[in-house]
Write a structure and sequence with these properties.
By secondary structure, this protein is mainly beta. The chain has one domain (4-271): Jelly Rolls, CATH 2.60.120. The chain has strands at 4-6, 20-23, 58-62, 65-71, 77-85, 96-105, 114-123, 126-135, 141-142, 153-161, 164-171, 177-181, 190-196, 199-201, 206-208, 216-226, 229-231, 239-246, 253-257, 267-271. It is globular.
């Protein structure tokens, strides 16, 4: 699969020389330990077992994502939405760490991602936050006029209609920031509610960043429209997947989602 590469405005100084920050689909770069794309069954190298999340249709592990996804036939997903509170980052005195919190369509089993959310960055002890959207293969774009801070309430959605994807994000109930674009090759085959550690990429290679200590963050009002049916993550007929973020095929766990609550519309992701 392709890796979606873009530069986030305003944080270039925190990125190693010649590198960009990259949002990667689930399969690239990620390590599959259970149930996704063939093979099935739990387990990985070194005796590590991918955690099973109670109530999930399937549980898988990834090196870059944690959260929940709904998978579907190509063209079936037409909207995804959710809300969360921006967490306060615990920043180390040295180095840089990152966390992205977002909702989106595609990326779980396809090479495009249509998404919007919030990025948190720790840079030598100082935390900063930004709102953004992306329609890969186009570059990520910051909602530059939208400030974001810990404790802010974020509502976000991505929808698809008549060949166009629309991303919408609002903070503290203010007017929505929106952007729309066609995306060549998009499959509309999955909906996601995700905490991610992005990759740092040069022209020739990528490496995953260090995940920022976000403590925990909870998604609420999680909803998707799949094959014309709108419902929570575990709605009847939806195929839901719980995703745990791990350091490698031998662990450790970096961030883990909880089981679904509130009728399948909410869950928490905890930093490990």
């Amino acid at each position: 699969m392709l890796v979606a590469i873009f530069v986030i405005p305003g944080i270039a100084a925190a990125i190693p020389s010649g590198a960009n920050l990259s949002w990667a689909p689930f399969g690239a770069p990620s390590v599959e330990l259970a149930g996704h794309g063939g093979g099935g069954g739990h387990g990985g190298g070194g005796g590590f077992t991918c955690p099973t999340i109670s109530g999930a249709s399937s549980s898988v592990c990834s090196t870059n994502w944690a959260g929940w996804a709904d998978t579907a036939a190509n063209g079936a997903v037409t909207s995804v939405s959710g809300a969360w509170t921006v967490p306060s980052l615990s920043c180390p005195k040295h180095g840089t760490t990152y966390v992205a919190i977002w909702v989106g369509i595609d990326g779980y089993s396809s090479s495009t991602v249509e998404q919007t959310g919030v990025l948190g960055e720790c840079n030598h002890g100082a935390a900063s936050y930004a709102a953004w959207y992306e329609f890969y293969p186009a570059a990520m774009v910051s909602f530059s006029s939208q400030s974001v801070a810990p404790g802010d309430s974020v509502s976000a959605s991505v929808s698809y209609a008549s060949g166009v994807y629309t991303a919408s994000l609002s903070v503290n109930g203010q007017g929505a920031n929106t952007a729309s674009s066609a995306v060549s090759g998009a499959l509309a085959s999955s909906a996601e509610w995700i905490v991610e550690r992005p990759a740092l990429c040069t022209a020739t290679s990528c490496r995953l960043s260090t995940l920022a200590n976000f403590g925990s963050t909870g998604f609420t009002a999680a909803s998707a429209t799949i094959s014309g049916t709108t419902g929570p993550i575990d709605a009847s007929g939806f195929s839901d997947v719980a995703i745990t973020m791990v350091g490698s095929s031998t662990g450790p766990v970096l961030a883990e989602p909880s089981s679904l609550a509130s009728g399948g519309a909410s869950f928490t992701v905890a930093y490990s």
